[in-house]
Write a structure and sequence with these properties.
Layout: E1 5-6, H1 8-15, H2 19-27, E2 35-38, E3 41-45, H3 46-55
Antiparallel strand pairs: 1-3, 2-3
């Protein structure tokens, strides 16, 4: 079952914006307002967030040429890397 309500961190993650940006957009009436679940708890209706996201205009910008495809980190074999150098014979 999909959640009915999302808290601020979940909303920020869902729409790929920071929590501060979400709060700013709410103040500017550009984002749905949260619902009062109790005296000290608010959350957003999932369907209102989805509707807002679907109403956002499609970007005219092409994705950047380097989108990370094929840029996986190379694995380093730690067993071949010496942790420390042997001490020199200085006595």
């Amino acid at each position: 079952m999909k959640p009915i309500y999302l808290d601020l961190p979940a909303v920020a993650t869902a729409v790929s914006l920071s929590e501060a940006t979400i709060q700013k957009l709410v103040r500017e009436h550009k984002f749905p307002k949260p619902r009062a679940l109790s005296d000290r708890r608010v959350a957003w209706l999932t369907r209102e967030i989805e509707t807002w996201a679907e109403a956002c205009p499609v970007s005219a910008l092409a994705p950047p040429p380097n989108t990370g495809h094929g840029n996986r980190r190379r694995k380093v074999c730690v067993s071949h890397v010496p942790i420390c150098q042997p001490a020199s014979d200085q006595v």
